Amino acid sequence: MKFPFFASFIVFCILLSYEIRKHRNLEAKAEESFWEKEAAANNTRRKSLDDLDYITIPFDSLPMDALNNDPVVKEYHETLYSISEGPVVNFTGISNTDLKLKYGAPNIDLLSLYDQRYTTLARTLQSWSQILYDNACIHEAQTVLEFAVNTRTDISASYKLLSKIYQETGQSEKIKNLIPIAEGLNSPLAKHIAASLREMTD
């Protein structure tokens, strides 16, 4: 009885050792590939940034008059005006390595700044829309959130609140239009957001 057990144990150890070696080899290859790509990226010359998808904040169509005496809202407005003074680009889901390969290593600090502005923009729009909604400025909150979605934000709370507004204002059919937008996001949250939207249409 001991021999079959011992033989099975030996086979198990051999298989385990094989899997460990295979995993280590895959990790080594992935790391080697990463550093080769990073080296190529660091040697990429500066390229034109003319084809970037720059985001313009449409102050004329945003509800800048709503709750404009509220100190928190004023702070959001100031943040938006500050952001608008420089280029804003959404690079969510794109690594610095890929940015350097496409636009050149010398541009990486500039591109990172553009992306930081976008992150601040997306968060500010979400916070602003929430305070508008909480103060019964429903239409105004919807306007802000629809702009946020147009910038391809991956803040799930923005999609959730916008969908809630659609339901409460008899526009539930618009939730379906948000699903392909969510599915097309270059973000790890894309599937989660899309799934949440589908639940709201069931």
What's a quick, concise take on this entry?
With 202 residues, the chain is mainly α. The protein contains 8 helices and no strands.
Largest sheet: none
Helix content: 55-70%
Query: Could you give the count of β-strands?
Result: 0
Give Rg in angstroms.
24 Å
Q: Enumerate the spans where pLDDT stays under 50 for 5 or more consecutive residues.
A: none
Mean pLDDT: 88
Number of helices: 8
Order of helices and strands: HHHHHHHH
Strand fraction equals: under 5%
Q: What shape does the CA trace take?
A: flat
Alpha-carbon distance between the two ends: 58 Å
Structural class: mainly alpha
Notes on the structure:
The chain is mainly alpha-helical. The protein is built from eight helices and no strands. The chain has helices at 2-42, 71-83, 96-103, 108-134, 138-150, 156-168, 175-183, 190-201. α4 runs antiparallel to α5, α5 crosses α6 and α7 runs antiparallel to α8 (190-201).
Please specify the SSE layout and strand pairing.
Layout lengths: L1 H41 L28 H13 L12 H8 L4 H27 L3 H13 L5 H13 L6 H9 L6 H12 L1
